[in-house]
Amino acid sequence: MSELVRLERQAAVAVVTIDRPERMNALSWATVQRLGEIGRELASDLSVLTCILTGAGDKAFCAGADLKERQGMSRSQVREMLDAYRSELSWLETSEFVSVAAINGAALGGGLELALLCDLRIAAPLSSFGLPETGLGIIPGAGGTQRIARLLGESRALDLVLTGRRIDAKEALALGLVNRLAPSREQLLDSALAWLEPVAQGAPIAQRAALAAVRAARRLPLEQGLDFERAAYERCLESADREEALRALAEKRKPRFQGK
Ligand code: COA
């Protein structure tokens, strides 16, 4: 059996590729479990600063739930699947590293929800996006209703969730659903790597502290968020990398960060 999801490492960057192009990289039970396994593997490796999630082929990033598998599932199996989305995929938004969806084609239903779990999104120009679930008699069930409303605001979220309409990459960019577009499908990964280079080259303690502090803004009221930010700053203040950055500035050279 071919591997459902591939993991490749390039120094501080991990590239995770859903590799089921014949099924438009749809999320079968085994694919979701494999993504969970990869998340656990990456969690134990503090040298990873960036994780890029993408799909194989040039048609789909991920076409959502595997609808062929879904046809044979009982209601209780569907419930288990909803639980698995939550337990196996949440590492994308709780990890110590920044997660980036590199969207190489259609991101539909659970596929868009997967991209929404990531911290950042970059898309190829011919990508398409949509949450068609209500047209299938269900609702987005992998956190989509919550995350799209937080990202875009209630009104734009309702437009996409209630109509289920598909939008193109230009509209996704204008809405803020993706951060940026790559010039072409072929240049998607290189564009993502170039964009994230400051993270991969950065001071790891500061990168992790900044990521945790910005993520905290989603769940904390302002006063508590400011306390969180202060505690995160303290971790940087104590670091040798902060001193190295100041020395490098004075000596007009690039800093050599060691994650200490
Ligand atoms: N689950 C399982 N198989 C899927 C799938 C899914 N979510 N989406 C596509 N496939 C399969 C198709 O059934 C087809 O298989 P077949 O050749 O055995 O019939 C194969 O992938 C290619 O799909 P096709 O629709 O012919 O390709 P396309 O290039 O014309 O369109 C998509 C690609 C992704 C735009 C289109 O497949 C699509 O809209 N899929 C449905 C997505 C969806 O509604 N997801 C929401 C789930 S809640």
Walk me through this protein's architecture.
The chain is an alpha/beta fold and 260 residues long. The chain is 48% helix and 16% strand. It has 13 helices and ten strands. The protein has a six-stranded mixed β-sheet with strand order 1-2-3-5-7-10, with helices on both faces. Strands 4-6-8-9 form a four-stranded mixed β-sheet. Strand 1 (5-10) and strand 2 (13-18) form a beta hairpin. Helix 5 crosses helix 6 and helix 11 runs antiparallel to helix 12. The relative contact order is 0.11. Bound molecules: coenzyme A (COA). Coenzyme A is lined by residues 23-24, 26, 59-60, 63-68, 106, 108-109, 132-133, 136.
Sum this structure up briefly.
This protein has 260 residues and is α/β, with parallel strands linked by helices.
Keywords:
10 strands; four-stranded mixed sheet; single chain; alpha/beta; 48% helix
Give the topology, please.
Blueprint (H helix, E strand, L loop, with lengths): L4 E6 L2 E6 L10 H15 L6 E6 L4 E3 L4 H5 L3 H15 L1 H4 L3 E6 L2 E3 L1 H8 L2 E4 L4 E3 L13 H9 L1 H10 L3 E2 H7 L4 E2 L6 H8 L1 H4 L3 H13 L5 H16 L2 H11 L10
Parallel strand pairs: 2-3, 3-5, 4-6, 5-7, 6-8, 7-10
Antiparallel strand pairs: 1-2, 8-9
Helix pairs in contact: 1-3, 5-6, 6-7, 11-12
